[in-house]
Specification:
The chain is α+β, with helices and mostly antiparallel strands. Helices cover 31% and strands 18% of the residues.
Length: 845
């Protein structure tokens, strides 16, 4: 008989998951209390709630993290080892997820090489455009670059280097990384005996070892000969062979350091130089080939700054406008004196008794940068006790800045550091590119000039470019990509930014909108975007433009999950999720979820009460009127500020506002703050950003509070950051039982050995690596998560050990330490700013 078939065991029943929804069940990350929530796909959904309620834990640490983790797990194990691992969030179920992309305000690049153009990839397309359609010219004489034939190259060699012993070289590797073992062996097999490697001639039969990750230049020695007319045919043969090997380039090396490159493609007709290959990396300030060699592509060098050297423009040179002369009138580290400077003035038509601000631009240039090699007579006379001598010298005045650069040594002239700062590179003028790249034009415009345009102007220029014939075939798609990216930047309200604006000078909101514009330009569909307060820092004028961009992204078939408090954003959302009702332990629940009208009608929702108008932020009935002085900023001219004057009253709550990009941050952070900081430190305030600031005598301290993270490791927490833990450790170390056991305050630190648990090193948890799965954190089996050794935990204050204190909220700890002023003062401040729900030991991360 056939065996009886087993009755299949039914699968556990699961509720139907709608395909048009994102469903989250049992989210327990951070303070979330097993949250269940669902919101529609292809919608604009806003998560809101009081600070600390858990909305970021739900949006970022649950939904976004799970989407990222699932996408990474879909890749091969080989690919995953290069991408790192994502921890699995504490959640039972997430369904309906798409690939997730985060657009937050914490991803700003701090590299000095990163710009608006590089972040949006517009610079890449501009480099491609200039390399393919640019018109090159000689950086020295401005003549149009043209290709040289082999005969012309031979004629130039015979005419300019006749009689010199030289080597004809074939450049086969130009500034590229690699070991080139195989290539060197192949060249040796072809009969080449020598090669010029990184400037040194080496025999190919030697054991040549090149570093793999270092840029190398290799030139094969095709022939060594004395340039002469009777060797024309031999020279011509060597040139032709070098051109064939060197991709239409050959080089001639003579003497100790004589060197010249000839190009069959592009070379100056006057013989000044040959243009490197017209390729995109020639126009990149991140490439060794394209960057300015002096500033290495940064556009700035560190040197003596005119604005620091000239400390008071209202004074004359004799009165000390430039305080580099001693009381005897001698220039520091020089034999030059004020008398020499007076003689220079007579020669060039200026007087050193004229106030600096009234001197001509030519006179200032001579004083700072010298007479340009021009010499003049200086009559001198020396009178002693018995003898008197006189004479005439011919001297060339080098200029004060030039002299300081020559005389400066960090070991002997550190007092001159106050006159030094990051200054515009004198070679490239801040363009960052090498001379060859700066000499290439497209439609009459150099690449640095295009990058210096604001986005709105660059868009107009790109739309006005007219191409025809082959140029149209080559440049059509490049220009289309440039226009598209510029258009999206302009639509999100960033038309005022220049493409060369450094990324580290952007605000968090600006960098976030740049990333948003890049995502809009990507044209993707079916993506779940998570945004962190995109409206923060936005002027009301730009808020509507941002919302239109978000809605356009939604209409393409994407889902937008926004964490925000802005009323306009909430009202224009398709779905609103209110997390709360309180913060910390009092939050972690979904109070209301649905269309904005439904949330507004929910009585339990605190957000709904504001949306209904029941609650409002009260305006003060009266404001301070007492005059406590003011700070006066005069002539601010940094970034886009144009000779701005502003008065800021002291003893008031002052708000600086204006549309995005108007110069608010420039005025406060880049003009006011550095000036006051320098003055309070007893240093000379720089006047390169404003003419002067008066009225700061009433200030004795400056504190800057920004959005920088307060800690980058899990060991940092509110107790350590506010230094409350220092006082608490002192308290425990002074307890009778601790003194009896001779415990020092280090015994109560979880950052140093001694009193902490040795197994988990004071972390309370141990991390287990799970290979291709996310690492798992488990409670330490030695201390049970208490962080400290049992002997340390036996010391208690009012029945509480140090671990108990770390597990307390600020509100609970304030009640415990109410009688200790040093501890209570800091805890009271945390409570006053609405952070009473935080645990003292909660990691800052």
């Amino acid at each position: 008989m056939p065996p009886k078939s087993k009755k299949p065991v039914p699968a556990p029943a699961a509720g139907p998951i709608a395909s048009d929804q994102v469903v989250v069940k049992g989210a327990r990350e951070h303070n979330l209390k097993g949250v269940d929530v669902a919101f529609p796909r292809e919608s604009l959904c806003t998560f809101t709630g009081v600070s600390g309620s858990g909305k970021s834990s739900l949006a970022y640490h649950t939904i976004y993290q799970e989407g990222q983790r699932r996408f990474l797990e879909s890749l091969s194990s080989y690919a995953r080892q290069f991408l790192g691992r994502m921890e699995k969030p504490k959640v039972d179920l997430v369904e309906g997820l798409s690939p997730t992309v985060s657009i937050d305000q914490k991803s700003t690049s701090h590299s000095a090489r990163s710009t608006v153009g590089t972040l949006t990839e517009i610079s890449d397309f501009l480099r491609l455009l200039w390399s393919r359609l640019g018109t090159p010219s000689c950086p020295e004489c401005g003549a149009r670059i043209e290709a040289w034939g082999p005969e012309r190259i031979v004629e130039a060699m015979l005419k300019e280097h006749s009689g010199e012993a030289a080597m004809v070289l074939a450049p086969v590797v130009r500034e590229r990384k690699g070991e080139y073992r195989k290539e060197l062996a192949e060249w040796r097999a072809k009969g080449f005996v020598r090669a010029r490697i990184d400037g040194a001639v080496r025999r190919l039969d030697e054991d040549i070892v090149l570093e793999r990750y270092v840029y190398h230049t290799i030139e094969l020695v095709v022939d060594r000969l004395t340039i002469a007319e009777d060797l024309r045919s031999r020279l011509a043969e060597a040139v032709e062979q070098a051109l064939a090997l060197g991709d239409s380039s050959c080089a001639l090396a003579w003497g100790d350091d004589g060197y010249r490159v000839f190009s069959a493609k592009r070379s100056c007709p006057e013989g000044h130089s040959a243009l490197p290959e017209m390729e995109p990396r020639l126009f990149s300030f991140n490439s060794p080939i394209g960057m300015c060699p002096r500033c290495e592509g940064l556009g700035e060098t560190f040197g003596f700054d005119t604005s620091r050297v000239v400390v008071d423009e209202t004074k004359s040179l004799r009165e000390g406008a430039i305080p580099l002369f001693t009381d005897e009138g001698k220039l520091v580290y020089s034999t030059l004196t004020l008398a020499h400077l007076e003689a220079v003035g007579r020669e060039f038509g200026f007087d050193i008794d004229t106030p600096w601000q009234r001197m001509s631009a030519k006179a200032k240039k001579v004083v700072l940068h010298g007479s340009g090699g021009k010499t003049f007579e200086f009559r001198w006379q020396s009178r002693g006790a018995k003898i008197s001598t006189a004479g005439v010298d011919r001297i060339a005045f080098p200029g004060l800045l030039t002299h300081l650069e020559r005389a400066y040594r960090p070991s002997r002239a550190r007092h001159l550091d106050r006159y030094r700062a990051a200054v515009t590179c004198p070679d490239c003028g801040g363009d960052r590119l090498c001379a060859a790249a700066r000499a290439v034009t497209f439609q009459g415009k150099r690449l640095p000039e295009a990058l210096a345009l604001p986005v709105a102007d660059a868009l107009s220029w790109a739309q006005s470019v007219a191409l025809a014939g082959n140029e149209l075939e080559i440049g059509r798609e490049i220009l289309r990509e440039i226009e598209r990216r510029l258009l999206f930047l302009d639509e999100v309200g960033l038309g005022y930014l220049t493409l060369s604006r450094r990324a580290r000078t952007l605000s968090g909101g600006e960098s976030q909108r740049i990333r948003l514009a890049a995502q809009v330009g990507a044209g993707l569909r079916g993506i779940l975007y998570v945004l962190d307060e995109p409206s923060i820092g936005l002027h009301a004028r730009d808020q509507d433009r941002l919302l239109r961009t978000l809605l356009a992204l939604r209409d393409r078939g994407n889902t937008l999950l926004v964490v925000d408090h802005d009323e306009d954003t909430m009202r224009r959302s398709d779905w609103l999720v209110d997390v709360g009702p309180g913060a910390g332990a009092g939050g972690g629940e979904v109070v209301a979820s649905g269309p904005p009208a439904l949330v507004a009608a929910t009585k339990r929702s605190l957000t709904g009460r504001y949306l209904r108008g029941e609650l409002r932020v009260p305006m003060p009935a009266s404001r301070r009127t007492a005059d406590k002085g003011s700070i006066r900023v005069e002539g601010a001219t940094f970034h886009n500020l144009r000779n701005l004057d502003a008065t800021i009253p002291l003893g008031r709550f002052v708000c600086v506002t204006g549309v995005s990009g108007s110069g608010k941050s420039t005025l406060v952070h880049h003009v006011l703050k550095p000036w006051i900081t320098n003055r309070l430190a007893g240093q000379d305030a720089t006047n390169d950003r404003c003419r002067r600031i008066i009225g700061i005598e009433g200030i004795d301290k400056l504190v800057e509070i920004d959005q920088s993270p307060i800690g980058r490791t899990p060991r940092s927490n509110p107790a350590t950051y506010t230094e409350v833990w220092t006082h608490i450790r002192d308290l425990f170390a002074q307890l009778p039982e601790a003194k009896l056991r001779q415990y020092e305050k280090g015994r109560f630190s979880f950052n140093v050995p001694g009193g902490r648990c040795d197994a988990c090193e004071g972390a309370g948890v141990t991390t287990l690596e799970m290979n291709f799965l996310a690492p798992v954190e488990v409670v330490c089996d030695q201390c049970g998560g208490a962080r400290f050794q049992p002997e340390t935990l036996e010391i208690t204050w009012k029945g509480k050990s140090v671990h108990d204190v770390l597990e307390m909220t600020v509100d609970e700890a304030l009640r415990l330490f109410a009688d200790l002023p040093k501890v209570a003062r800091a805890l009271q401040t945390l409570q006053d700013v609405g952070l009473g729900y935080l645990k003292l030991g909660q990691p800052s991360t």
